[in-house]
Design a protein that fits this description.
mainly alpha
Length: about 220
């Protein structure tokens, strides 16, 4: 709890909203959506319920705002991992490390994305499906560019890497993070690369083709 509703300090609207979202995240992670109440969130934030309702008309709106921010964060981490390297292997490792970074973040916000108890709500389901599609498509596009695989195969590998990354990161955290995060992500990367790396890159196939052409020409 951060304080008492009495004598609440006036804050700029954006700052107050951020404070309320932080309190809501704490309560949702601790109690789950269905068990959390607006009273709990107001108390956690140290404000009155009217102050909370000035910013969010209801519990669902609060949850959706949090979900949106966390989905955006994961998308940014993964897209940065894909764009910050031109090496196929390095991108695989960076992508998996992005999921470990997200899951290992403060406040266990990843639970709102991967362990939501509100997936039956159409708005929540739509955002989660959008996240999976966005991240999976970004990865599959890189796989297709690097390997020349047909789209349907690249799409399968992309969504498989998404699933493997988030499950392995959650498994690491559930076991008490006994392995340093970087080492755990690298171990998962080894496993993923042994699979994806078995598909020759476009550059490798081009080099082999050029070498064969030179051999044929010299024969």
């Amino acid at each position: 709890m951060t304080g008492s509703p009495q004598g609440v300090q006036r804050l700029p609207r954006a700052q107050r909203r951020a404070q309320l979202l932080e309190a809501a995240q704490t309560v949702f992670v601790r109690k789950g959506y269905h068990s959390a109440a607006m009273e709990d969130i107001a108390e956690e934030a140290g404000v009155s319920k009217p102050v909370l309702y000035q910013h969010f008309p209801g519990k669902l709106e609060l949850y959706l705002a949090l979900l949106e921010s966390q989905c955006d964060r994961l998308e940014t981490l993964v897209l940065d991992a894909l764009e910050n390297s031109s090496d196929h292997k390095d991108r695989v490792y960076r992508t998996i490390a992005a999921f470990f970074e997200f899951v290992g973040g403060e406040g266990e916000a990843f639970r709102l994305v991967f362990e939501s108890d509100l997936t039956s709500d159409p708005q929540v389901r739509h955002r989660l499906d959008g996240l999976e599609a966005q991240v999976g498509d970004a990865i599959s596009q890189r796989v297709a560019e690097d390997t020349g695989l047909p789209k349907e195969f690249a799409d399968l590998l992309g969504i498989t890497l998404v699933g493997m990354s988030q499950i392995s990161a959650r498994a690491w955290l559930a076991r008490g993070s006994q392995i340093p995060r970087e080492d755990a992500a690298r171990a998962a990367g080894h496993l993923a690369w042994r699979g994806i790396g078995s598909f020759p890159t476009v550059a490798t196939k081009r080099a082999v083709g050029e070498g064969q052409a030179e051999t044929d020409a010299g024969a």
